[in-house]
């Protein structure tokens, strides 16, 4: 469990769900993790728990939709720890709606956090990695919603599809420089976001059962299963992999 010993990792949206699981797994593999999130309560709690591990962690307040914040925080991390080896652009939001129902404000919010947040994360991680002898790995968390038309999720699908396209572009531009860039497209993962959606249904347990039955594998994924894949892509075991979009959806898009 030391595949990432001595590495410095940045994880956005790391205060809960998939992001928290990623941060925990990277620390267990020996990386120091910068826990980045807007949640000023839960974020420091996650970092404090991970600080007990040998490699450690620290919380950084970050709104990924603000370019100056992303630039400043990544610069602070690089200055303090001398490098950034792993950048995980995980922060994201979702709002339900067809194109008839989605408001411009909702569309702009999802594009700002999901697509623009990944763009800023890639931009300033690449800038730092180009100055390092050991370049680094960038992992963008997209979604199967960026690959297929999910009902009632117009803006969300568009923003996640943008992340997949961005990943391939950045990977192509900087492959020769030794920077690897990949995406992961999770399917339905039993995260706080899904739990919130289910809690808003008239019969939450019935809705959960229906959601699970839609998965060919017979259940939802777990945040830890996505974290395993992030760890692999961040490690030297994936040294020949760049520009790829890994689908982790329990077979959902295979049907």
UniProtKB/TrEMBL annotation:
A matching Pfam family: adh_short_C2
Entry coiled-coil feature ranges: none
Gene3D superfamilies: NAD(P)-binding Rossmann-like Domain
Record InterPro entries: NAD(P)-bd_dom_sf, Sc_DH/Rdtase_CS, SDR_DHRS6-like, SDR_fam
PROSITE patterns: ADH_SHORT (PS00061)
Family label: Belongs to the short-chain dehydrogenases/reductases (SDR) family.
Designated name of the protein: SDR family oxidoreductase
Annotated organism of origin: Brevibacillus choshinensis
Lineage start: Bacteria, Bacillati, Bacillota, Bacilli, Bacillales
């Amino acid at each position: 469990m030391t595949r990432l010993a001595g590495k410095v990792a940045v994880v956005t949206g790391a205060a809960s769900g998939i992001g928290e699981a990623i941060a925990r797994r990277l620390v267990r593999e020996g990386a120091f993790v910068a826990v980045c999130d807007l949640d000023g309560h839960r974020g420091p709690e996650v970092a404090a728990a991970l600080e007990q591990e040998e490699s450690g962690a620290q919380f950084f307040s970050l709104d990924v939709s603000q370019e100056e914040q992303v630039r400043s925080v990544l610069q602070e991390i690089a200055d303090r720890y001398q490098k950034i080896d792993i950048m995980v652009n995980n922060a994201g939001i979702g709002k339900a709606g067809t194109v008839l129902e989605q408001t411009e404000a909702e569309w702009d919010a999802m594009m700002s956090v999901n697509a623009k947040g990944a763009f800023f994360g890639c931009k300033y991680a690449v800038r730092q990695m180009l100055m390092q002898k050991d370049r680094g790995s960038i992992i963008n968390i997209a979604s199967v919603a960026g690959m297929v038309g999910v009902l009632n999720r117009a803006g969300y699908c568009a923003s996640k599809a943008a992340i997949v396209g961005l990943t391939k572009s950045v990977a192509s531009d900087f492959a020769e420089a030794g920077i690897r860039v990949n995406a992961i497209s999770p399917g339905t993962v039993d995260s706080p976001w899904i739990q919130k959606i289910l809690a808003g249904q008239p019969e939450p347990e019935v809705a959960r059962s229906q959601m699970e039955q839609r998965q060919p594998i017979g259940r939802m994924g777990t945040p830890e299963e996505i974290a395993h894949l992030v760890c692999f892509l961040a490690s030297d075991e994936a040294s020949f992999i760049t520009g790829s979009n890994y689908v982790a959806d329990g077979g959902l898009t295979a049907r």
